[in-house]
Amino acid sequence: MRIAIAGAGMSGAYLYRLLANEGFNDIDLYDQRKNTACGCRPCAWGYAPTSETRRLIAKVADPAHFELHRSDMISFDGVAIRSDVLTVNKPALINDLVGDKEIKEGPVDLTKYDRVVDATGVSRAYLPPIKNDLIAACNQYRIRSDDPLGFWFKTSSMGYEWCFPIGRNEYHIGFGNLVSDVKSYRPPKELNGHDLTLSLRCKCQSTVRMTSPFYSQPLVTDNKIVGIGESIGAVAPLAVDGNVYAMQCGEMLLENWDDLDKYAETVLRRYDWMRKERRALEKLMAGKIPSIFDALTMKRHSRMVGVEMNTGHIFKIFRNMTKK
């Protein structure tokens, strides 16, 4: 079987290594040249929970080689919450997964392959366009502080600001929003009395899909083109985390390689909670506070990824996101 994987980010690189380790040897890997300093599509490099992150990476590499910082506490709008989040050196992990495999540029000639995997993220280059797609813009900087800044999120109207520790006194600080322009965002020069040193070399702008797999169908076309990761909306619509789900999609696809309909069913069943979060997000966009059932969905998701949020924390986030 001749295989093309379009996209060598987290989902595409991980699937490539899974397939290569299983003995698939006729694989072409495609990607576009990245314009970021790290050579990676922008993100905050956060993975949760730690146990699932390590399990997935251990299938293809030694997780210890890529771990940067484990956080057992996260602040949401000033409230300290127990957590289990690991920041990972994502560019190094992707480079390790790809190894010395040649990465081709340019569009995939669909006629030359028996299976084409769309791992192109927001571009969704080989699957049909999504109706009512929800795409948020993000702007992120890499900064340094000799004093600890912590791991935190600050919610605002239809978005939030974040600070992710990535080890060695460095942090990713950024801002994402579903409805407003983020290009003018700049991190503060001082935070909680601590001076920040901005890396002018390492800053990036990107987008993230918040649509959910249910609203990103079809996941498969012509029993040949199949999507994984963000191309099929496998990103939490409210928390906007997707790295672990990118790897899980590759794992599910390999397990159902000869039955793509079953793969799609498995993805929709496993990530049905994303469909529910998407509905809560639509309420927020309409200026409405989501229901207690929506809050419970987010609470279950947060606990699944190792963040011990209660419904009071969640409703505070909902209220902040509807403020004008």
Describe the structure.
- The chain has 324 residues and is an alpha/beta fold.
- The protein starts with a strand and ends with a helix.
- A hairpin with a 2-residue loop joins β9 (152-156) and β10.
- α6 crosses α7.
- The chain has a single domain, classed as FAD/NAD(P)-binding domain (3-Layer(bba) Sandwich).
- The chain has helices spanning 10-21, 50-58, 90-98, 243-255, 260-270, 272-285, 292-304, 311-322; strands at residues 3-6, 27-30, 46-47, 67-76, 79-88, 103-104, 115-118, 135-144, 152-156, 159-165, 170-177, 190-191, 194-195, 197-209, 220-221, 225-227.
- It is built from eight helices and 16 strands.
- It has an eight-stranded mixed beta sheet. Strands 6-2-1-7-16-15 form a six-stranded mixed beta sheet.
Outline the secondary-structure elements.
Blueprint: E1 3-6, H1 10-21, E2 27-30, E3 46-47, H2 50-58, E4 67-76, E5 79-88, H3 90-98, E6 103-104, E7 115-118, E8 135-144, E9 152-156, E10 159-165, E11 170-177, E12 190-191, E13 194-195, E14 197-209, E15 220-221, E16 225-227, H4 243-255, H5 260-270, H6 272-285, H7 292-304, H8 311-322
Parallel strand pairs: 1-2, 1-7, 2-6, 4-9, 7-16
Antiparallel strand pairs: 3-5, 4-5, 8-11, 8-14, 9-10, 10-11, 12-13, 15-16
